[in-house]
Amino acid sequence: MSKNTIVTILLVAVTLATNALSADAQLRVMTPPGLAAGPVDVVVTNPDGQADTLLGGFTYVAPSPEIASVSPGNGSVEGGTEITVSGSDFEPGAVVTIGGVVALPVDPPVDPPVDPPVPGAWNEPAGFTEVINEPWNDFTTQGWYHGDNNSRGSADIVGGKLVWTYFQGSSGGSAPGSRVLEEGMNFGPTHYQRDEGVIHSANWTGHGSGVNKFRFWQRAGGAHHGYLMFETSNLEVAINTQGFALGTEVWRWDDADNQASPSQSEARSARGVPHTVESLLYKGTAGNADGWVKVWLDGTLILHFINKAFTPSGESPTFAGAHFAPIWGGTGGSLPAQQTLTVDNSYVSSGDS
């Protein structure tokens, strides 16, 4: 392929149709939407399969928000003054801070209802046995144990949904409350499936550590946990093994050994929007790196890691139980405003497939 070929606008790794040609040395196309801001490679592939790549040949630029005015421009030091911020390129879920402190919306968006996951209808393997399927009617039903930490927040049942409230000013590293599934503790099958519907409040602020813990997996014996988390202020779904695997690691959507191929947008949740999170784990055999884990967000496989060592020699390859303990961040930090995390329905099943 001639090196003087000029590409004016191209999609990454796209094969151009022959009718896109406008001249022997030019191809004119439109850039596709949906890619993240930053440089991308430009690839031209001829019908015979020969290709050439210009690394970083095109850069996507995302418009930055611009503030035109704030009205009124002053108010009491006691707070509570309603102001209007006008400008352009404000995206849904944008957060306003004043003097470094998050300002709550005057009319906070009402969290829409989450459609509960349908057991077995999405990605549950055939032959699995239901351990629990709860639309959150009572803290003591179906084998769940509930603990509450009123100094950091509260955990309440509201309209059949489990709502964790994180109080303004509370520090990182603790959950407002927890839920531990006792029924089925140390259940025998080695595969473990979980589905939940979840909403972060529209004003959710990610912890500075980038860690917003959601749910835990517990090994047999109860000594170690791994957890699913919404990482950073972008709320990208990730896994932190934290002793569940042999060696603590964080597994993300863009890791080279991720067997799934999601886009960044597919791995990212949004504030004030209902999502369904599913996971399927196999602990593998004791002492071997043959375990694996899959995670789906809204039905799309976003994480798939294989050949992982989850079970030490001599330990049973079963699970100790299912835990909820949504923790805002690691240590330190101070929550700038009260926020909530809502879970609608939790479905747990297990099997040997």
Q: What report would you give on this structure?
A:
- The N terminus is likely disordered.
- This protein has 353 residues and is mostly beta strands.
- The protein is flat.
- The protein is built from no helices and 26 strands.
- Helices cover 0% and strands 43% of the residues.
- The strands form seven sheets. Strands 10, 12, 13, 16, 21, 22, 23 and 26 form an eight-stranded antiparallel β-sheet that branches.
- It has three domains: 55 residues, no CATH class; 38 residues, no CATH class; 223 residues, Jelly Rolls, CATH 2.60.120.
In brief:
By secondary structure, the chain is mainly β.
What layout of secondary structure does this protein have?
Blueprint: E1 6-9, E2 21-23, E3 26-28, E4 38-45, E5 51-60, E6 66-71, E7 84-88, E8 96-98, E9 101-103, E10 129-134, E11 144-148, E12 153-158, E13 161-166, E14 171-172, E15 177-181, E16 191-200, E17 213-219, E18 225-231, E19 236-240, E20 250-251, E21 275-282, E22 291-297, E23 300-308, E24 319-324, E25 332-334, E26 339-351
Parallel strand pairs: 1-3
Antiparallel strand pairs: 2-3, 4-5, 6-7, 8-9, 10-26, 11-15, 12-13, 13-26, 14-25, 15-24, 16-21, 16-26, 17-18, 17-24, 18-19, 19-20, 21-22, 22-23
